[in-house]
Specification:
This protein has no helices and 14 strands. By secondary structure, the protein is mostly beta strands. About 0% of the residues lie in helices and about 30% in strands.
Length: about 270
């Protein structure tokens, strides 16, 4: 870069002296200034790569150029290629795409991570369409995993439909479970399976099962099924489901010809807590 020539100072008229030095004109260069390039102190150089450098003077005989942080780059195409790590730091970082363009972030052969420490990660769209936000994979053997902590997952829609579809019909849900040698279990969840062992409900007799559940309220809507896991003719029919604050009870009757002699499995789903 040809900066070794003697620079002529720009002068202006003002106080306290009749003439005061002005900042030198900006130099547009096709290369980055080096320690051998000399200019007026305060000289600004903008390279073809849209980087900004300011001449600070000499240190130990070498020219010192400072690259300006936080510079704005306006260009039709911005292509960043690196074999190592690319780090972008800032109090606020904005990646914008114009109305007629796409913003694409691609990870080739490695994981692509979006994380936040001490804050939320928000994916938001103002598009008025049924596919405003999509999570999809392109490989036939791929999948999507949503893994959370104790706060769980909340899906909310205002007037719309939450639709779970699988072309193979394999839609699964993992319940919390509890097994007790009594007529009471504790399962603090919306979906659960309680197994009761040691019950011997006689034919035509009734039994009350209690599920302690911190999710349950007095107005909870609960779906229940009851299964007898043995071969004897103990036909268990649910007669009543009674929700309460912190628990609910299920009353059943043995309409079979034999007394109960096997485990009983209660499956429930709290549709409204």
């Amino acid at each position: 870069m040809a900066l070794k020539r003697k620079m002529i100072k720009n002068l202006g008229i003002g106080l306290p002296s009749a003439t005061v030095p002005l900042a030198p004109d900006v130099i547009i260069s096709d290369s980055t200034p080096t320690t051998r390039d000399v200019a007026e102190r305060g000289q600004v150089v903008v390279t073809d790569a849209n980087t900004v450098h300011i001449y600070a003077g000499k240190l130990n005989g070498a020219s010192v150029w400072k690259e300006v942080a936080g510079k704005v780059i306006n260009t039709d195409i911005l292509d960043i290629n690196a074999t190592g790590v690319v780090t972008v730091d800032g109090a606020s970082i904005s990646l914008d795409a114009t109305t007629a363009s796409n913003l694409t972030v691609t990870g080739a052969g490695a994981d692509l991570t979006v994380s936040s420490v001490g804050g939320s990660v928000l994916v938001q769209s103002s598009e008025a369409s049924a596919t405003a936000i999509k999570l999809e994979t392109t490989d036939a053997a791929s999948g999507v995993v949503v893994d959370t902590g104790s706060a769980g997952v909340s899906l909310t829609t205002t007037g719309g439909i939450i639709d779970l579809n699988s072309t193979t019909g394999a839609v699964t849900m993992s319940p919390l479970v509890d097994t007790q040698a009594a007529a009471a279990v504790t399962i603090n969840a919306h979906v659960g399976v309680g197994t009761f062992t040691g019950l011997t409900t006689a034919a035509a007799a009734t039994e009350v099962l209690t599920v302690t559940n911190s999710v349950c309220t007095a107005t909870s809507a609960i779906l229940c099924t009851l299964s007898s896991l043995g071969a004897e003719d103990a036909q268990l029919t649910i007669q009543r489901v009674n929700p309460g604050v912190g628990s609910f009870t299920v009353t059943y009757k043995n309409n079979g010809a034999n007394a109960l002699a096997s485990d009983v499995m209660l499956t429930f789903w709290l549709l409204r807590a």
